Each structure stands twice: as structure tokens, then as C-alpha cells.
């Protein structure tokens, strides 16, 4: 039986974003009411598209990220930055890691990566130029080592994910 774990953006970050959008909307309303029409138009022209872009990157993209643990292996879906199928036969080692304190897992170079407010998703290089796929909204992760790369996975329910991986792994 397959179990899916989500990796959303922190609600605090989303709340800050919505407060910023509200502040810009208030500035636009003030601009139009005080006779500064072109200031309001410029705010709309600049802040409108940026707000849509950031809403997509901060809410929609992380909301689609999921890690599915099944009898055959792990399906990792975090479009557009990371996606992978990890069959149990390719797993060499499973262990806990911390992205903030473990020197071996410090990101040295990002290949295709997004990192914002504790949320990380993508393909990176870590110490000794080893490739790693990171999908996490927390610093403590479950590391799945294969011959090709490391998978650093940290869904919201890390304890449940760790238990599911332990039970499903051969």
C-alpha cells in the first residue's frame, strides 16, 4: 500500500507574503484616492505580475511536492525542480541527517534548485561534488543513499515518513 507525504511551504511565509500584497494594495488605493494616479498604475503594473509569480513559487509549487512510499520504492514528485523514482533495490543506506549541522550535506552548488523560508527543492551538489536531490521544508531529513546520488527528504510528517520507509524497505 502506498502512502503519500506532502512538503508544503510554511504557513508563516505565506502569511508574510499575503501581508506584503495587502500593503501594496493599500498603497495602490491610497495613490488613486490622493490623486497620484500614475503611481497607482505603476504599482499595479509592477506588483501585479510579481505577486502572481511569487504566489506560484511560494504556494503552488510547494503544494504540488509529494513523496510517495510504496512497496516497490519511493516516488518523489516536486515539479519543476525534482522528480525521481527510487526502487528499493537501488537503496544502499537509509539514515537521518540535518541540513544545517551536517557538514557532509552542506549545499556547495545548486543545479536546479529553489530555497525559500526553510523550503528546499531541487538538485544540488554537496561536499566532494556528490549529487543530491533535496525536497524538504525542515532541516532534519531522512537521507536515502543510492549509488548515483543522495536523496534528502523531509516532509511535514517526518516521523510517519521515517516509519513508512523503515517498514517498506527490504
Report on the structure:
With 170 residues, this protein is an alpha+beta fold. The protein has a 6-stranded mixed beta sheet with strand order 5-9-10-8-7-6, covered by helices on one side. Strands 1-2-3-4 form a 4-stranded antiparallel beta sheet. Helix 1 runs antiparallel to helix 2.
Provide keyphrases for this structure.
single chain, 170 residues, alpha+beta, six-stranded mixed β-sheet, four-stranded antiparallel β-sheet, 3 helices
Question: Helix tally?
Answer: 3
> What is the distance, rounded to the nearest whole angstrom, between the alpha carbons of the first and last residues?
15 Å
Q: Uncertain spans, ≥5 residues at pLDDT below 50?
A: none
- Beta-strand portion reads 35-45%
- Which sheet architecture does the biggest sheet show? 6 strands, mixed
Shape: elongated
